[in-house]
Design a protein that fits this description.
This protein has helices spanning about 1-25, 30-35, 40-60, 60-70, 75-100, 100-105, 115-140, 145-175, 190-205, 210, 220-230, 235-240. About 80% of the residues lie in helices and about 0% in strands. This is Oligosaccharide flippase family protein.
Length: about 240
């Protein structure tokens, strides 16, 4: 009975935190549609359609593979192998996004602002690097830290967006010589949303730093091959989702 109660309690923490995070994030939609022009909102929509697709490619099903192999293999070995695999692949894929920045920016209709893709690449990379630490929190039965980290990240994102899109312009309008006027660009609003997202991911990464660095620098090649055979087909399901 105690096991059922524990499972129910953890499910509530994981479920409520995910639902609350989505709900809070959805509250941004009317605010952003008010702040953005149609063209700016279109740019943001394209970029935020690109990011989740790349998240699937960057993580290539390893989160599911981590849970699957942790049940039957040495947990520390699985965690170390999975973490190192994602670190190496994230570095390579992020460098590829940077190397092909200009053609990809044109493909995403933001050729005049290639820095948007650079910010998106950083967001995707940090998302990928925190995937396994989040999974480890669930495996270790630590739903409160999981929920705290998720909700903190969302609240930081909202606060940063409001600061960049509302407070900064207001301060500059009130005081044209304000120090922010030397850095702030009113035509870079989509960039500020991406920057806010990047700040969120940095905060989340810092909160999860203990879990992230909790692996050993030991890579099990045989285990990795098994995990890849299991995980790679999940990319298709992930892209479909």
């Amino acid at each position: 009975m105690s096991g059922i109660k524990k499972l129910a309690g953890q499910t509530i923490w994981y479920g409520v935190s995910s639902i609350a995070a989505r709900f809070i994030n959805y509250l941004l939609t009317p605010y952003l549609t008010y702040k953005f022009t149609t063209g700016e909102y279109g740019e943001m929509s394209i970029l935020y359609a690109f990011i989740p697709f790349m998240n699937v490619i960057f993580t290539y099903g390893m989160e599911t593979g981590f849970f699957r192999f942790s049940q039957n293999s040495d947990k520390d070995k699985v965690y170390s192998t999975t973490s190192l695999s994602l670190i190496y692949s994230t570095l390579i894929l992020a460098l590829l996004l940077i190397a092909f920045n200009k053609p990809l920016s044109g493909l995403l209709s933001v050729a005049d602002k290639p820095e948007y893709l650079m910010l998106a690449a950083a967001i995707i990379a940090l998302d990928a690097l925190t995937t396994i630490p989040f999974a480890k929190l669930r495996q270790d039965g630590r739903p409160r830290k999981f929920a705290f980290t998720k909700l903190t990240g969302i609240l930081v994102n909202i606060a940063a967006i409001y600061f960049f899109l509302s407070i900064c312009p207001q301060l500059i309008d009130q005081e044209p010589d304000h120090v922010l006027s030397h850095f702030y660009d009113k035509d870079w609003v989509v960039g500020y949303v991406l920057l806010a997202n990047l700040i969120q991911n940095i905060i989340v990464f810092l909160i999860l730093s203990k879990e992230f660095w909790g692996f050993r620098f030991k890579f099990n090649k045989a285990l990795w091959k098994e995990m890849m055979l299991y995980s790679l087909p999940l990319i298709i399901a992930g892209l479909g989702a």
